[in-house]
Amino acid sequence: MERRQLTYSLLVFLFVVSCQQTESLIIQNNINNEVSDIKDTPPVLITEKIIEEPISVWEYIQNNSQLEDYAIDRTTQKYINNHIKDKDLFYSFLENSTFYIFYVIQKLNEADLPVELALVPFIESNYDPFSISPSGAVGLWQFMPSTGRLYDLDKSWWQEDRHDPFLSTDAAVEYFDYLFKRFNNDLFHSLASYNAGPTLVESRIKSNIKLNKDPSFSNLRLPSQAKSYIPKFVAIYEIISNPDKYGVELPMIPFKELVERVEINGQVEILAFSDFVGLKPEFVYKLNAGYTKWASAPGEKSIFYIPLEKANLIKQDKDLFLKENQINWISHNIKAGDSLWELARKYDTRVEIIKKINFLEKDLLTINNTILIPLSQSKDNNFIPYEVHIVSEGDSLWSIGARYSLSPRGVARNNNIEMNSILKIGQQLNIGNKNIYRTIDSKKRTILYSVKQGDNLYRIADLFGVKAQDIRKLNNLDDSPIMPGQIIKIIISAF
Question: Residue 178: its pLDDT value, please?
Answer without folding.
Answer: 97
